[in-house]
Write a structure and sequence with these properties.
Layout lengths: L2 E10 L19 E2 L3 E10 L2 E8 L6 H14 L7 E5 L19 H20 L2 E13 L3 E2 L8 E11 L2 E9 L12 E2 L2 H14 L2 E6 L5 E2 L9 H20 L3 E2 L8 E9 L12 H13 L2 H16 L9 E9 L2 E6 L2 E2 L1 H10 L4 E4 L8 E2 L10 H5 L6 H15 L1
Parallel strand pairs: 2-10, 4-5, 9-11, 16-18, 17-19
Antiparallel strand pairs: 1-3, 1-6, 3-4, 6-8, 6-13, 7-12, 8-9, 14-15, 15-16
Length: 412
C-alpha cells in the first residue's frame, strides 16, 4: 500500500537574553542567533491510521509539554495520542526548559510557544500529505561522532535514514542521528540547532527536498573524538561530511516499508518506575581532579574534556539522586520497522540490546516524550565518567527500559 506522507516546519524564535540549556558551566544568557531553531513534523498515514512525529530544536522536552501536545494533536489530526511523538534534538544552544536529571517543569511561556509551533508544523505536514513510498536505510557514519568512554570506544556510529520517495525521486528524509549535538561549547551564547541543524541544512541543500533530524542513542556519543574546534565553521564541515554519507546511503538500495500488510500502531508507557540511587555514595572528586591535572599536562584536548566532564559529573551527582525516577517509553510499528522512543539519553549499546530482542529492524530515538537523564548500559557503571555520575538511575535501569519497549512493541 502507498502511504500518504507530509512534512512541515516552523521557526522557533528565541529572544536575546534567554537562558540557554545544556551546559552547567555556561555563564550568561543568549546574545543573539547563529541559526534559527526549527520545529519539524512528519505525518505518515496508511490504512486509516496516522503517525505524527514532531521534532524540536530544544535541549529536552518534559512530560508536561509532550503529554498535552499528544492529546491536542490526536484530536486535531484524527489519530490516537500514542501515535503522536514529540522529540527534542538536544541542542545545547537552545532555551533552558528543564533539562535536568528527572526532568523539570517547562516554563509556561515556552510550553505554549513550543506547543503552538508543534501544532503548526504538524498541521502543515497533514495538509502536505501526498502518496509516497517509504524505505529504510542503515549504515555507519564516519568522522562525525564517536563514543566518549568505554573500554574500546567506537569512532563511528550506526545511523538510520527513512527516505520518502515519489516514484524514483526522494522528496525528503528523516535521519536518526545517534550523536550529541555539541559542536559549540559552553562559551557559546548564540542560539543554534548545532549539529542537527547543520546536518539538516546540508542534506536539504544537496537533496533539493526536506530533511528532519532526530537524535538517537546518543548518551555516550558526541562529536568530541572528531571535531577540530568548537566554532560555527566546524558545524558546516561536519554537516557536509554527514550529508554526503547519508545521501550515499539513501542512493543505495534500502528496505521498503510495507504499510499495507500491517497497520500503523503505537503504544506508550508514560511513567515507567526505575530503581534510583539515593542510597548510593556520592563519587569522590580527589582522584578525578588528579586525572584532570594529568590530562592538562598532556595537552590532549579530548582527554582534558573527558576529565573535566567526569569531575563535573561527580560534583553534580548529588543533584541527580532523585527519588522515584520515571521514564517515558514509546513504541511505533511502521510495517516491519520498530521505532522505539525513550524519554532520556540512552547509551549506544541500548539500541543493540533492543535489536537482540526484536526480530524486526529497530531504530532507537532518545529525548522523546519526556526527560529523565542519562540511561547508561549496566556495564558502564564501573566507569567513573560524567554520564554515569550524573545519571539518576541505578545499574540495570536501561535494560529494564529495553524490556518495557519490547513489551510495548509486541502489544502494538
Amino acid at each position: 500500500m502507498t502511504a500518504r506522507i507530509g512534512h512541515g516546519q516552523v521557526v522557533l524564535d528565541v529572544p536575546a537574553g534567554t537562558p540557554l540549556g545544556g551546559y552547567a558551566a555556561r555563564a550568561g544568557t543568549s546574545t543573539g542567533t547563529l541559526d534559527p531553531l526549527e520545529v519539524h513534523a512528519v505525518t505518515i498515514s496508511a490504512g486509516g491510521r496516522r503517525f505524527v512525529w514532531v521534532v524540536a530544536d530544544l535541549p529536552a522536552v518534559n512530560t508536561d509539554l509532550a503529554g498535552p501536545l499528544a492529546s491536542r494533536l490526536a484530536g486535531a489530526l484524527r489519530t490516537r495520542p500514542e501515535l503522536v511523538w514529540l522529540s527534542a534534538t538536544h541542542t545545547h544552544s537552545g532555551p533552558e526548559l528543564g533539562c535536568r536529571p528527572g526532568g523539570g517543569r517547562t516554563p509556561p511561556a515556552w510550553r505554549s510557544r513550543v506547543a503552538r509551533a508543534g501544532q503548526d508544523a504538524a498541521a502543515q505536514a497533514m495538509v502536505a500529505e501526498a502518496p509516497a513510498r517509504l524505505t529504510v536505510h542503515t549504515g555507519l557514519l564516519r568522522g562525525v561522532g564517536g563514543q566518549r568512554s568505554g573500554a574500546r570506544p567506537r569512532t563511528d556510529v550506526p545511523v538510520t535514514v527513512l527516505a520518502v520517495r515519489d516514484r524514483r525521486l526522494v522528496r525528503g528524509i528523516v535521519v536518526v542521528l545517534p550523536v550529541h549535538p555539541t559542536v559549540l561549547g559552553a562559551d557559546n551564547l548564540l542560539v543554534s540547532a548545532d549539529l542537527a541543524g547543520a546536518v539538516r541544512r546540508a542534506v536539504a541543500a544537496r537533496l533539493g527536498g526536506w530533511a528532519m533530524v532526530a537524535t538517537g542513542a546518543a548518551g555516550d556519543v558526541s562529536t568530541r573524538p572528531h571535531r577540530r574546534e568548537q566554532r560555527p565553521g566546524e558545524l558546516d564541515r561536519l554537516g557536509a561530511l554527514a550529508a554526503e554519507q547519508l545521501l550515499a546511503l539513501v542512493n543505495a538500495p534500502g528496505r521498503p516499508i510495507d504499510l499495507g500488510h500491517l497497520p500503523i500502531a503505537g503504544a506508550r508507557t508514560w511513567s515507567l518506575g526505575l530503581p534510583g540511587r539515593t542510597d548510593e555514595p556520592i563519587p569522590k572528586t580527589a582522584a578525578l581532579r588528579s586525572r584532570l591535572d594529568a590530562a592538562q599536562r598532556t595537552g590532549d584536548a579530548v582527554a582534558v574534556r573527558t576529565a573535566e566532564t567526569a569531575l563535573q559529573g561527580a560534583e553534580l551527582a548529588a543533584s541527580a539522586r532523585i527519588r522515584d525516577p520515571r521514564l517515558v517509553v514509546s513504541a511505533i510499528r511502521l510495517g516491519e520497522l520498530a521505532l522505539i522512543g525513550l524519554g532520556g539519553e540512552p547509551y549506544l549499546a541500548i539500541e543493540a540490546a533492543l535489536a537482540s530482542e526484536v526480530d524486526n529492524p529497530v531504530t532507537l530515538v532518545g529525548y522523546t516524550g519526556g526527560y529523565l537523564g542519562y540511561l547508561p548500559s549496566a556495564t558502564a557503571y564501573s566507569t567513573n565518567v560524567y554520564e554515569v555520575n550524573i545519571s539518576p538511575v541505578a545499574a540495570g535501569s536501561a535494560e529494564l527500559a529495553v524490556w518495557e519497549a519490547v513489551r510495548l512493541w509486541h502489544n502494538c
